[in-house]
Specification:
It comes from Subtercola frigoramans. With about 220 residues, the protein is an all-alpha fold. It has 9 helices and 2 strands, in the order H-H-E-E-H-H-H-H-H-H-H. A hairpin with a 2-residue loop joins strand 1 and strand 2. The radius of gyration is 21 Å and the shape is globular.
């Protein structure tokens, strides 16, 4: 299991893991529910310039929510003691995931919708990375299991859910590492950047990683 924890004494580092997970869950839900298109649809509603007077309705809906979510993410990193370099590093770590997500969406939806959805996911991923940077994985698992403890009477397995959460968080940098390895190997061989020659090996390595992970869990009696 990969740990991305960076020791520190900031307010974010010292905050309880359960509180950080709860705030992150609220943040992710808000971004998912409120974020509309920043360029079309629920963002700028359009209007007509006639006779020197703009008769449009201006900004409407939730087009503002994605920029606000991005600003909150940047503020959280600064509060944790990380600068712009760390934010850029986290974005670059998932750049190929973002590219694949954006390109595949452009096949089916307009650019504004695809860009908004990709930006929404990127913001949540970068904010999730902040939790792994400021929280030890054992603390994260313990807080999750304690929070779900009362639900055992309803058949909930807190240990399994905590493990699933930890695996989900740590899988993102693993896939990002695969992407970096593939790109470095292609660059060493002089292979130009092509979506087809990049996505296929990334999918193969990701699927193999999931198989190895499933075998490791099965060997430990986990389903």
């Amino acid at each position: 299991m990969i740990s991305l924890y960076r020791p520190g004494s900031s307010l974010v580092h010292r905050a309880p893991a359960g509180l950080k997970v709860l705030l992150f869950a609220c943040f992710a839900i808000a971004v998912s529910v409120l974020a509309g298109s920043a360029w079309a649809g629920s963002g700028w509603s359009g209007g007509v310039w006639s006779g020197g007077v703009w008769s449009g309705n201006g900004w409407s809906g939730n087009g503002w929510s994605l920029p606000v979510a991005a600003a909150i993410t940047v503020a959280a990193y600064l509060l944790a003691g990380f600068g712009a370099r760390e934010i850029v590093a986290q974005v670059l770590a998932v750049r190929w995931v973002v590219v694949v997500m954006l390109v595949t969406q452009l096949i089916f939806v307009p650019f504004a919708t695809a860009a908004t959805t990709t930006g929404r996911v990127l913001t949540v991923i970068v904010m999730a990375s902040l939790i792994t940077l400021t929280t030890r994985i054992p603390d994260l698992l313990d807080s999750t299991e304690r929070a779900l403890g009362p639900f055992t009477r309803f058949g909930v397995n807190p240990r399994a859910i905590g493990l699933l959460l930890a695996l989900t968080i740590t899988t993102i940098p693993v896939i990002a590492g695969f992407a970096g390895t593939i790109r470095e190997a292609q660059r060493a061989r002089g292979v130009p950047v092509r979506l087809g020659t990049f996505v296929v090996p990334l999918l193969v390595m990701s699927l193999k990683h999931s198989d190895d992970l499933a075998d490791a869990l099965a060997a430990r009696g986990l389903e």
